[in-house]
Amino acid sequence: MVILSRTKAFVLLLMLGVAWSGCYLDPTGVQNPSVTEESLLSNPKGATTTLLNGLRRQFSFALGATILTTDIVSDNVDHVFVTLSPLLDDPRSISPLDLTINATGSTGCYFNLQRLKALADFGLTQLVPRDPDATAAQIAEIRTYKGMALLMLAENFSHFPLTELGQPVPASVALDSAIAEFNAVRALAPAREQQMRIALARAFRLKGDKAQARIHAQAVNLTTASSSILFASFTEGILDNDVNAYVFLRTSEDIQPLPRLDFLDPKYPFRSSPLQALKPEEAPLILAEIAISDNNLPEAREQMKRAIALALSRPPVRNPVTDDTLINDPDRRRRGRPNDPAFRVRATGNPARGDTTARAGLILRRSGSPVPVYSISRTSIRNTDIDALPPTDVRAHLRMLYLLRQEIFFLEGRRMSDLGIRLPVMQRQIEGNPNMPPGSPGTRVIVPDYIPPGAELDAFTINAAANLVTVQHDMNFILADNKVSPFPIP
Q1: What are the E-state strand segments in 118-254?
Q2: Residue 2 maps to a domain
Q3: Whether the Cβ atoms of residue 22 and residue 79 lie closer than 8 Å to each other
Q4: In a domain, 180, yes or no
Q5: Number of domain units in the chain
Q6: For 172, left (φ over 0), alpha (ψ -120 to 50), or beta?
Q7: Cα separation, 309 vs 326, whole angstroms
Q8: Which pLDDT does position 369 carry in this prediction?
């Protein structure tokens, strides 16, 4: 089928003829009568430029869909929303038939990631070899998007095919392909070296390859922190940020952050707010995790402080109307949500299962009140919190690391993967590929035993008299208690 666009700009993507064949995205078979696959390939001069316009748009869709789906599945945000599946908040209830998992629109995570990879493959195998104007920088950008599609698929799905009607492969195989793409980009475009080092560190971390993850994380230059971010960009009125539409432009307060993360919301205040797919904060957090694995806790503390310093160096978003750094948040925090800075928040009320310290400064007043917005990174943790860690307590250090990852990567599509949850592929994939029958690897959701039942990932209670919010489960403690990490934890 041909996917139609809401905007004129998407005609560029239609020129690539996105189609679904055997439930693997095949970007051939153009149906647009004005621009056919044959005419495009028979007149290939400049075709790579056209491809990149479509790929940039598709990358934005893919990242946005991944963020929306996976952050809701995780403990980052809770939702009651008629256009998104209510089952996302109960991970064990998710199936391939789920209305969000099986979606082909802007919320279809699997669909959009596979489409991104397929478009990149089409360009690399069909268009670029025929286009005399294709440059090394353009090829590098195509390979960047292909590598990111593979990386995000591997982070969020356990098995999936990489070819039409192909055998599903485990995520580790897709990671190897992503790593090959990132290394190819380094050879083609030195200007992308820092981005690719971040991507490689992230990929090798997921593989559990401590040595390679360390090499690439150490090569990330934190002094050039802004220039090495890989953004998915939007243009208001032409290509809108759907994460903003669901999470910030909410009229009935149906998507809310975990109270522990309230101060980070809203992260993307405008329909043109870019999303970050790679950022250098990744490097010190990976190096801290490696140090914890090595039982080098002083080094872990230093690396966590480096991540904190970088996150706190990110400037707030400026309001384009008032030119200040405060933006009115219309959210009235209904359904019993705390809406008063007087409230303190604790991660759990059970001292045997996490941190019961009640922290101030995590709840902001909404209801049209101005709030600061940090769209790249922010954290509530300070160096004093790191210094207060028991110096020989591995579990306390790992808990702090996961809390930092949760805050710094908030609404970036990373938390569900850290929790160990993996989504099933969409039903259309199962129905169209005989190599992936129901019940086979990749067709069922994977939820570790340490994940609490039902929708308890998002559960909390409020004691209004004491101005106290208590989150039911300190998931960062639970992750640390179960030694959850790609690296062995002592």
Answers
A1: 159-161, 168-170, 230-232
A2: no
A3: no
A4: yes
A5: 1
A6: alpha
A7: 22
A8: 82
Instruction: Assess contact for 393 and 380: CB atoms under 8 A.
Output: no
Residue 429 CB neighbour total at 10 angstroms? 26
Residue 62 · residue 115 · CB < 8 Å: yes
DSSP string, 252-273: S--EEE-GGGGGG--S--STT-
The answer to whether residue 3 sits within a structural domain is no
Tell me the residue range of the domain where 144 lies.
8-481
Read off the CATH number of the domain in which 279 is found.
1.25.40.390
Per-residue model confidence as pLDDT tens digits over 264-310: 988 988 888 899 999 999 999 999 999 999 999 999 999 999 999 99
Is 52 inside a domain boundary?
Answer: yes
Residue closest to 69 by CA, chosen among 59, 77, 58 = 77
How far apart, in whole angstroms, are the C-alpha atoms of residue 265 and residue 362? 10
Distance CA 86, CA 78 (A): 10
What is the 8-class DSSP label of residue 113? H
| Cis peptide bond prior to 91, omega within 30° of 0 | no
Secondary structure (H, E, C), 414-479: CHHHHHCCEECCCHHHHHHCCCCCCCCCCCCCECCCCCCCCCHHHCEEEEHHHCEEEECCCHHHHH
pTM, rounded to two decimals: 0.92
Residue with tokens 């250098």, as numbered in its chain: 280
DSSP code for 112: H
Q: What is the pLDDT of residues 414-443, one digit of tens each?
A: 999 999 999 999 999 999 999 999 999 999
